[in-house]
Amino acid sequence: MADDIDIRIRVNGLPRRATVPPRLTLADFLRVNCGLTGTHLGCEHGVCGACTVLLDREAVRACLVFAVQADGSDVTTVEGIASPDGELSVVQAAFREHHGLQCGFCTPGFVVSVTAFLAENPKPTDEEIRAALSGNLCRCTGYQGIVNAVRAAADREDSV
Amino acid sequence: MKPAAFEYHAPTSAEETVALLAELGDEGKTIAGGQSLVPMLALRLATFGHLVDLRRVHELRGIEQRDGTVRIGATTTQATLQRSEDIRDLVPLLARATPLIGHFQIRSRGTVGGSLAHADAAAEYPAVALTLDAELEALSVRGRRTIPAARFLTGTWTTALAEDELLTAVTFPVWRRPRGFAIEEFARRSGDFALAGAAVAVGLDAGGRVDRCAIGLFGLGPSACRAHTAEAGTMGREPAEDMADDIGRQALADLDSIPSDLHGSAGYRKRVGAAMVARAWRRAVREAVHG
Ligand SMILES: Cc1cc2nc3c(=O)[nH]c(=O)nc-3n(C[C@H](O)[C@H](O)[C@H](O)COP(=O)(O)OP(=O)(O)OC[C@H]3O[C@@H](n4cnc5c(N)ncnc54)[C@H](O)[C@@H]3O)c2cc1C
Ligand code: FES
Ligand code: FES
Which ligand 3 atom is nearest residue A110's CA? Predict the structure, then answer.
């Protein structure tokens, strides 16, 4: 049997230590070991984007990273996006306001992806917004509300 | 946990990595960004007893200019290439190919070396490497060697790399001006692997005639390939945008193993491929002539 490995990962600002089997994905580590079930799993092979988290500030598929590969890194999940007092981030508030979600299954992945996208592209064109959203699938909304939410969040972040 | 169990190794140098690969033989597999390998492990299309992670091998990362060439370390991520002004300036075709790869969340992990070593028939980087006559550097316990892109790509998901060989870098030549580059592809959804695609690179002499031309095709055979006959037909001519449709037809004429599946028949892909060559030709020529 494969040997378990000691890892240290900072998750939403809190240091975590664990001894894990190498085949444990970062997504399962977050959900099972850390109890952070906001990171959703749709396909578990990189297609749907529901599992998106920030790994050292970059948006990644948590189902395509093994927890051992994140040793020594900083991870932010959807639970770490709002401010500590619970106030929604600009992106989260815009999703609520513009009906960017229905069942909510895809939402953590969208919120985390859009947060990373706007951090790097604070003034996106509509075209760039659509390209950035291509990596997340939603079965409910028809995307219109999501596109509107991202536009609104970009315009708001821009004005502050 | 979906993949089968494996032992995990994270060596810190290229030397150490190849020693491990030699020792593990066909039980060992390199993992870089994991964006192709992990889905295959999750679906159990492949299982390996040992994964050798390149994340701590820092010498494999980075972009360097060296007398008329740009050398890119194998584990440099696609996102890093997309952000690099040097790449945009010196190897524009590579810069323009990058946003066509998957989605930004894939490119933040996916690496140049992984893309080339994985050698998907419809992937962009192998086609760009072939179009620009890039050279790949490989290391094993037997030593270092350089492999031209044309000899590196041997078939679907297969390359000239031996099982215990590590791809360390890829070197792209910088084309002198005036020159133009374009890459065009068609996919049903943004970010999907292309149904058919083409890359065109054109260089002009002092009199404004074509003195260099390379046309790379992807998604149209077992691996990326070059349209040598169509390329030769453009040499010495004044490049005109209205040659595009003929060049497109000619580029596709000799292909005899165009894939056919539920996404598109071979005949359909052939027409799409010809249209992609024509589009890329027009854009490359426009850039070569007008800058
Ligand atoms: C949803 C999705 C969409 C995608 N769309 C596209 C697309 O449109 N176009 C495209 O080109 N790709 C696409 N990809 C694949 C992506 O580009 C991968 O990043 C890339 O193919 C592999 O790079 P990697 O670093 O992730 O390699 P890994 O997955 O880590 O490895 C892939 C293979 O290469 C080998 N390897 C990796 N590095 C080395 C090395 N240095 N030396 C020797 N062998 C090595 C591994 O052993 C393995 O066999 C997509 C992936 C996903 C999940
Ligand atoms: S669960 Fe990770 S991309 Fe679908
Ligand atoms: S809100 Fe239901 S999947 Fe997107």
Answer: 4
